Amino acid sequence: MTGPDRDSRWDFVEFDDEAPAEQAPDSPGFMEETERDRMRTALQQSGVHTGASLQVLEIIGGEGTGPGEFSRPLGSHLDFHGVVYVADGQDKSVRKISPEGDVWTYSCAAGDRRTDAEEPYDVSVDSRGMIYILDRGGRIQKVSPDAGYQLTFGMPGTRRGQLRFPEGLVLDSQNNVYVADTWNHRISIYHPKGAFRAVWRGEGIDGFERPGGVGITRGDEIIVCDTFNHRLVLYNPSGVVMDIIDGYREPGWVFRLPVD
Questions:
Q1: Beta-carbon count within 10 A of 52 CB
Q2: Cα–Cα–Cα angle for 81, 86, 87, nearest 5°?
């Protein structure tokens, strides 16, 4: 894939090994502890991606502010059409890059207080192409596919519905917006039209500690990167904890400080 700027480059990586059948079981809902342990053991023994042979297919992008270049890329999203969206925090913009290499830039510093962002930190796109931009300053901006401003919701603060240095954003199949409200130590949830819906603080699991990222499965289960607790927490769509994956397992660390 070649962009309009011949110096533009991206990275694509291919795994040569194939994951075993047990790597991606169907979403099990609530599982008994013994069943979760069995699945974890199977995954640990499978060696998923351990020693995988990596091959760089192409590099696109580079340092700068021109088309296809980045100053400080922070969050990204890949839609169903293969289009890549990148939140560039320092350049205060979102880059949209097609599989053919065409680059479109949406500026978050256009001199309009509705749309200006302190630091675009993450980005997600719904099935209609609506773009949701997370500003680490404490807001979410919604933009149409043709770069038309829609609305801004959330605001800086510590009260319900407010955000304090958030770092991650994801949408479910109904376009509900889940935000890793990092310095409020919680997950904040919004309706796609901006209304605040709920907050998860890690009740019953000793709380979150600066969660840095949030992801979603095909079954709308939410995965929280509970960064400073060194663990992943899996929620069902109703907000019930299904599982906890700890970063420390005997005899040592599997991962630390997961952020996305």
A1: 15
A2: 145
